[in-house]
């Protein structure tokens, strides 16, 4: 076999980041409210968000992909033995 069939390649680790969004209703309960200085009730935003995150784990929540971003992974290292690497020069 001659050098005409020989190819060279460099492996690079990429990172694909997918952003999804979902709408959900958070019940207004005492768990997400706080008493204000004037005695009235207000929404505790941190607790509201925490409850929304908890509710978002329900499999009935409809998640939709907003964006997909592909970039070089910030940490490059050799491929682990249990991972495959795509090589367009090799037919599987």
Main traits of this protein?
about 90 residues, two-stranded antiparallel ribbon, 1 helix, two-stranded antiparallel sheet, 4 strands
Structural class: alpha+beta
Work out the strand percent. Answer: 25-35%
Annotation, overall tally of beta strands: 4
> What ranges have pLDDT less than 50 throughout 5 or more consecutive residues?
none
Principal-axes geometry comes out as elongated
Radius of gyration: 25 Å
**What percentage of residues falls in helices of 4 or more residues?**
10-25%
Helix segment tally: 1
Mean pLDDT, nearest integer? 91
Largest sheet: 2 strands, antiparallel
* End-to-end gap: 21 Å
Order of helices and strands: EEEHE
Trace the largest sheet across and list its strands.
1-4
Structural description of this entry:
The model has no long low-confidence stretch (mean pLDDT 91). It is elongated, with a radius of gyration of 25 Å. A two-stranded antiparallel sheet has the order 1-4. The chain has a two-stranded antiparallel ribbon with strand order 2-3. β2 (33-35) and β3 form a beta hairpin. Helices cover 12% and strands 25% of the residues. It has one helix at 45-55, and strands at 14-21, 33-35, 41-43, 64-72. The protein has 92 residues and is an alpha+beta fold. The protein is built from one helix and four strands, in the order βββαβ. The protein has a domain at 13-72. The longest helix is centred in the middle third of the chain and has 11 residues, at 45-55.
Task: Describe the structure concisely.
The chain is an alpha+beta fold. The chain is 12% helix and 25% strand.
């Amino acid at each position: 076999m001659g050098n005409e069939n020989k190819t060279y390649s460099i492996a690079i680790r990429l990172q694909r980041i997918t952003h999804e969004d979902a709408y959900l209703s958070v019940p207004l309960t005492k768990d997400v409210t706080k008493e204000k200085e004037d005695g009235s009730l207000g929404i505790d935003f941190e607790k509201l968000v925490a409850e929304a995150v908890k509710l978002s784990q329900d499999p009935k929540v409809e998640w939709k992909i907003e964006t997909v971003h592909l970039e070089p992974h910030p940490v490059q290292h050799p491929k682990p033995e249990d991972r495959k690497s795509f090589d367009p020069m090799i037919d599987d």
